[in-house]
Amino acid sequence: MKRLSQYVKRAFENGAAEAMIIDTKNIVTGNWVRLKCQYGCGGYRKRLCCPPFSPKPEYTRKMISEYKRALIYTYYSKPGNARPKRRNMYRVLGKLEREIFLDGYYKAFGMGAGPCNLCPICDIESRCKFPEYARPAMEACGIDVYRTVRNVGIKIEVVKSTRATSKYCHLILIE
Questions:
Q1: Are 29 and 94 in contact (CB under 8 A)?
Q2: Phi-psi category of residue 15: left, alpha or beta, with phi > 0 → left and psi -120 to 50 → alpha
Q3: Which of 146, 162, 140 is nearest to 46 (CA)?
Q4: What is the dihedral of CA 100, 138, 57, 102, to 10 degrees?
Q5: Pairing label, strands 109-111, 69-77
Q6: 99/96 Cα distance (integer angstroms)
Q7: Per residue in 100-157, pLDDT tens?
């Protein structure tokens, strides 16, 4: 198995602005987080990777407790470029998770940022068309992204304007 630092390098090679291996004890969940999806996000009940289809916070907490290390990385998206950039980064997430899995970390599982946008309209009555890339968003699973990234020294602020550059964060649970 490759050393975990190789995945930090791979994240940077694929467009990450920041990347690091973290202890999963730094990952914070909250029951309130999914309420932000339900009341305030257009993806609720419209995407298979969003609530109510995504894992609930209590399940996420239990799942995270079965891991010790994770890869966390961020990327920026400028206004007008968000949709294609996020779509590409969801593909990167799937590819990195698969690479980590094939290197022997069989428990590898990724989580994205915001609603999956691989399809213009998600057919929630059918199977996912991109199961190799589609992953639930961290916040859809109850992860407090702001607290989690701040716990590991990554700066993040609330985006206050549609004209502002957005910072997104992905997570791959490894071992």
A1: no
A2: left
A3: 140
A4: -10
A5: unpaired
A6: 5
A7: 999 999 999 999 998 888 999 999 999 999 999 999 999 999 999 999 999 999 999 9
Q: What is the DSSP letter of 126?
A: S
Could you give the count of Cα atoms lying within 13 Å of 38 in the half-sphere of its Cβ? 12
Q: How far is it, in rounded angstroms, from Cα 53 to Cα 164?
A: 30
Tokens at 110, concatenated: 């990724």
State the amino acid at position 138 in one-letter form: M
Q: What is the pTM of this model?
A: 0.94
Euclidean distance between CA atoms 55 and 52, whole angstroms: 8
Distance CA 154, CA 52 (A): 29
> CA-to-CA distance for 23 and 89, rounded, in angstroms?
23
Percent of the chain with pLDDT over 70: 99
User: What pLDDT sits at residue 2?
Assistant: 59
Burial readout 80-104 (b: 16 or more C-beta within 10 A, e: otherwise):
eebeebbeebbbbbbebbebbbebe
